[in-house]
Design brief:
Strand content: 15-25%
CATH architecture of one domain: 3-Layer(aba) Sandwich
Low-confidence stretches: 287-291, 397-414
Distance between the termini: 52 Å
CATH topology of one domain: Rossmann fold
Number of helices: 15
Helix content: 25-40%
Radius of gyration: 24 Å
Largest sheet: 10 strands, mixed
CATH superfamily of one domain: P-loop containing nucleotide triphosphate hydrolases
Number of strands: 15
Mean pLDDT: 85
Structural class: alpha/beta
Shape: globular
Order of helices and strands: HHEHEEHEHHEHEHHEEHEEEEHEEEHHHH
Amino acid sequence: MAVSAIHAMIEGLRKADSTGIMTSVKELKENQFGLPLQHYAQQYLFGSTGLRIKVFNSISGMPQSCKSPLLFDLMGHVCASEEKGGLGGLGFLYELEDKISPTLLAGVLANFGEDVYERFQVIKDLPLDGAFRHICKQIIPAYRKNLGSCEMPIILGLDSIGGAAASDTVEKLEKEGVVGKGFHEKAHWMKYFCENAGVLIGDIPMVVVCINQEKEAAAAAYGPPQKTITGGKSQVFKDGVMISASYKSLASGDGKLITLRTTKLSFADARKIEVAFRWNKYGATDPDTDAYGHHFEWALASAKCLADPEKGVGEIRDICDVKVADSGLVTCPTFNLRSVPAEEFEAALFDRSNSKTLNALYQYQKIERIKDLSAYKEYVKSRKNGTFHEPPPPAEATVTSKKPRKKLIPVFPPDPVDASPEQEEQSEA
């Protein structure tokens, strides 16, 4: 009696809910969406195959730890055309410190093609509260007016929270010339923007990335000194991913080896990767040469992420055997590759014919496979037309025989998008 009453109550609530604000745990797990990340090392760092929609991310670190170039790189991928491997989206960089290097920004974006410059805009000369006002009163309404609700991905970067001016502080400086202790407007604005941004964004496929300064707090009675970021603690609670960056100079003198650690990751366990950032002394890419702009060596970081995994149960080499030489060349017997550039290895890793291996690596390294923007559009459409809770058509029943799993290798079917039945039969043969 009690069970049937509960069932009737839930079914009644679901039928009355035409917009999908009420979901089952299964629906919640299935309906995870993000802006696809380009490299395996990035996917490992964020714990998922994409930057989750409507999730706040922060990158903090000491000076010179390449926080801004990392932001430029993420934004460039979102704004790049699909022909260049990008997402064809929009990017708005709020430059709040008055110290951006145009050459550095152009050098990073040069790796993503010419189209990126039309979709990437820099917004300057605003205090922090002015940036929030511009997002709420200009960006979000303009997107809805011109693009609807979920037509195109958009990424916002704020560089940086700690170095931004505040209008009340500016006003006090103009009147009195000095500002004493007790001015907490920045934390106040961060609190209310972070807490309410999700409702303001609505269905827009937006990702927000904030750069912040990292400082060491006074040593506690026990344990190592704690690191803090400016702008109050609300962002610490709101952020889904918080990354701490540190660095050391490369022996070659043409870049830095950046260590990225997740100090908070709401969707997986803590992560750490190392990726080299190389300077191009000639500035932006020259279209008449093969020179790179300033760039991160993500493909090499991906190979090292598999050659020397930080953690895991069992031997990752049972899934994918990867070795990286001191020269940076990669050998992978699993893909029949010997001493090839890291870019060639990563291309093989993401090739559809190797989808079973990639899926097994995702499970081994706890990288959640989330849906892309095309699936998100269908999800939003179903919520708007009131069909979100309608059950899908029944699938035809099939009988499959159970096969023993190979030791230490997670075996599960390939994603239907990634592999055809003919490829599956060949791989099983």
